[in-house]
Amino acid sequence: MNKVLIIRFSSFGDIVQCMSILPKVKENIPGEVHWVTRSDMSSLLLLNKSVDKVWSFDKKKGFLGLLKLAWELRKENYTHVYDAHSNLRSRVLSSFLFPPHFIRRSKERIKRILLFTFRKNYFENPYRGIISYLTPLLKWGIEDARDFKPTEWDFSKLSIPTSFESDSIAIAPSAAWEMKRWPLDYWKRLISLNKELKFTVLGGPGDKFCEELREIDPQRVTNLAGKLSLIESCYIVSKTKLLISADTGLIHVADLLGRKGISLMGPTAFGFATGDHIKTLEVDLPCRPCTKDGRGKCSQDIWQKCMVDITPEMVSSEIKAQLSL
């Protein structure tokens, strides 16, 4: 029997994009599919019925813990292994396994050096992360590997929080790195421009600024930042009629689940959505993209110009266009 192992430890957005390969793997390689990931991401994988077993790795266990996991994985006798992470940990794990069929997703490090050091972009433009995870499947003879189709997750064990209204628009104003965040004042202006709409704010425990958005109009704005688990936030995205977000994991959730979204793309290089149901708003600047994930310094006189030039009026207009489809 075929037995496939996918290795992707983190991060949230990358795991979501990598999950796009699961339908292709299940359709073309009948058998079990296992996934090894970081322990705090395990619950995310359990949402997809295509994953038969999730192996968790706790970074606190260090190198010895990784070796122990590698020994356990070796006993599974995998027929196919996909190293979708391509970092030191994933290479250590895969070196203990001897599957007949092995593929690794390249991080194309030379292209990254050329882009971020010498400003020479040889990546596909726009670079779509989902496609980059699907493409290696061609080596396993999956001819339609790059054909992306939205999938479904199993949220049957979750319930919508009572404070969530399904006719609201979900907004994700935060991001791991500040440079790729849309300005807070712009979010406030967007809410004020659309007085007929309700908004649900998603974010983490540290995103205290989200309360400022609720204060604009408590009758229309519900702040769930810090009140939901990561999985519950994904559930909200699966039920909302529209998500607005910068380059975050949640926009990739909407992309993968086929939910409408507006993606606000600024300095980052690899966060573009794939499906036509996600509308990307961006401005053309010679300095873009300038960073992998939002870290670094802005070279413009106007800090974060690539995000500042995406105005609330532009987003408001796109909201109307999306809701009319």
Write structural notes for this entry:
- The protein is α/β, with parallel strands linked by helices and 325 residues long.
- It is 33% helix and 15% strand.
- Helix 3 links the parallel strand 2 and strand 3.
- The mean pLDDT is 95.
Q: Care to give the gist of this entry?
A:
Helices cover 33% and strands 15% of the residues.
Keywords, please?
alpha/beta; five-stranded parallel beta sheet
Radius of gyration: 20 Å
Low-confidence stretches: none
What string gives the helices and strands in order? EHHEHEHEHEHHEHEHEHEHEEHH
Pairing-aware structural class of the strands and helices? alpha/beta
State the helicity in percent bands: 25-40%
Measure the end-to-end span: 45 Å
**Strand arrangement across the biggest beta sheet:** 8-7-6-9-10-11
Rounded mean pLDDT is 95
The largest sheet, given as strand count, sense and whether it forms a barrel, is: 6 strands, parallel
Tally of strands: 11
Tell me the strand percentage band.
Answer: 15-25%
Tell me the number of helical segments per DSSP (H or I, 4 or more residues long).
13
Q: What gross morphology would you assign? A: globular
